[in-house]
Amino acid sequence: MDGTPNCYNAFDESITANSCVLNDKYRFHCTSESKCLSPAMVRNGTSQCIGNEDETYFSEQIAFQAKQLKNIDRLHSKQEWFCHRGILIYYGKDESDKRLGPPSYYDSRCQYQNQRASLSLRFRNENLNKLDIIGIIITLIDNAGLIQLHERVTYIPIHDCNTKINIYLLYRDRPKDTTKNYTIRIDAYDKINLLYLTSWTLPVKFIFMPVNRVSAELIIPARYYCHRVGNLKHREQQKLA
Question: Record's superkingdom (predicted)?
Answer without folding.
Answer: Eukaryota
